[in-house]
Amino acid sequence: MISTQNINFSIYDSRSNDLLGIAEVTLPNFEAMTETISGAGLAGEVDMPVLGHFGSMTVELSWRTMTADATRLSGQTAQYLDMRGSIEQYEERAGAITTMAMKVAVITVPKSLNLGNLNTGKGSDSSNEFECSYIKVWLGGKEVVELDKFNYIYRVHGVDYLASVRRDLGKAG
Description:
By secondary structure, the chain is mostly beta strands. 6% of the residues lie in helices and 58% in strands. It is built from two helices and twelve strands; from the N terminus they run ββββββαββββββα. A hairpin with a 2-residue loop joins β9 and β10.
């Protein structure tokens, strides 16, 4: 099975289940926090990732035109967004094209609202940027990654890499 492309997707406010309109989404980058270690026993330096800890993660929504939803999402409160899509897959032996459901749920806080440009007969290229503290991704109905920065959860394909850290810190769960 070869995943070939995103067929389409929709963006929803996950609290109200309202469709938020036509936008392009830039999802966050998982870049581990690191500490450079060196000294006896090492032939040089190693940038060692901190278990389950990641730098700032942003989500950006780029809108064709300025919308009421884009401005509403700039309110200084948590924004709960779902991106639901369909990924095209090609089964090379059977020559069949199938689809796989994709869902990305995020909890964010607004960082910026760019109202964009005003030009006759053109879109405005408005955008929102959000800081992401929570993200969960499902592919084909299966959870593949979950990061919850406030609750010390980093789970990849069922392995919870911060379970022992929560235990060590006396946190429930």
